[in-house]
Design a protein that fits this description.
The chain has 174 residues and is an alpha+beta fold. The protein is built from three helices and ten strands. 13% of the residues are buried.
Length: 174
């Protein structure tokens, strides 16, 4: 919708629209900019999981604050060691009594920062979010390229007409 508004130079201005909340998939900077330009509003990104609900949310300064009173997040490397760098996100849901999730690997990559934010909130900050562990193509040199649904949509959208009959495709990694 934002792309449509921007591409067609529609002047969208609504006094009733107070916020736009995105959730369910990573919000990339380009998407954030598209929304901001189209609706003249800073989108609020939420990060969550079916297993725990809301895990983190944007503040007005753009930091993705974790809900430290509801979840405990840890970052581990491929060997299961706790790290302070980017790694696999491990979730403990503190309010899930019927079905406890303790040190559950949710399949996402990120980093936790404990720096203070200019918004004044004392919650930790999730940074360097990279999305799902399996949303990458690994090149022969080890470089990883993020490939998510929106990326695939763009590829199909701009494919030459002779490929319009493609209904499914698969990317295979050696």
């Amino acid at each position: 919708l934002g792309e449509h508004i921007n591409n067609n130079k529609i002047d969208f201005h609504s006094h009733s629209l107070k916020s736009i909340i995105t959730t369910g998939e990573m919000l990339f900077d380009q998407q954030r900019d598209t929304i901001r330009k189209a609706f003249k509003i800073n989108p609020i990104n939420e990060y969550g999981a079916n297993e725990s609900g809301l895990i983190a949310g944007d503040c007005e300064h753009g930091s993705l604050h974790t809900m430290d009173d509801n979840v405990l997040l840890e970052i581990i490397d491929n060997d299961g060691n706790l790290v302070e760098s980017k790694g696999k996100i491990i979730l403990t849901a503190l309010n899930s009594y019927a079905t406890p999730f303790i040190r559950y690997e949710i399949g996402d990559l990120g980093k936790i920062d404990y720096d203070s934010c200019s918004c004044g909130r004392n919650f930790s900050i999730l940074s360097k979010m990279e999305g799902r562990i399996f949303d990458f193509i690994v090149l022969p040199n080890g470089e990883r390229i993020l490939i998510v649904g929106i990326f695939v949509f763009k590829i199909l959208k701009y494919m030459p007409r002779e490929f319009n009959d493609i209904s499914r495709f698969q990317i295979e990694q050696p």
